[in-house]
Amino acid sequence: MTPIIFDLDGTLLNSAPDIQAAVNRLMGEIGQEPLDLATVISFIGNGIGVLCGRVAEHHGLPAADVPDLTARLLAHYNAEPATLTHAYPGVFDALSELRTRGHPMAVCTNKPEAPARKVLATFGLDTFFETMVGGDTCATRKPDAGPLRETMARLGHTDCIYIGDSEVDAETAKAAGVPFVFFTHGYCHVPPATLTIHATLTDWADLPGIVAELTA
Question: Which sequence positions are flagged as catalytic?
């Protein structure tokens, strides 16, 4: 059966409120104004280091501060990664159906591996996935194809369907040469019409049918 690989933030989980909370705890520590949710969402997608770089640029902080800010933000996030986060409606039922049909499943995310595993376990999602590749697992991050190819290799496959919510995910799937299913309720920062999309997912209840069509 064709493997199904998922992005995490903005795809399986609406995690932006906890990311915002961690950012604003850090902002309080360093005497900077808090950021609203829309601004934080606009910074999500390329990993925590890039997010911190965008926060620093937003506040006019030196680029040299970014490594320290990244470490401190990760500590804040690791302390409370799932207080405000929730799984999107229908995720559990869709994953259960795909598992029943025999599809191997995994996660490929730019979130660092430790907090990614923690939030998956917190919501009981970890039991659905055979493996997970995080933003610090490989030498590169998405949109490079390397992490997605590593995830496929761990499943013993050279193909998959990739489910994600952003231009980063679309570029990753395209680079890896696999079909991309675009989830419309996540954190995309560009018009979806500009992306290479093989199917659009608005309601998680539709995912098993979409997968069946793509694998027919």
Answer: 7
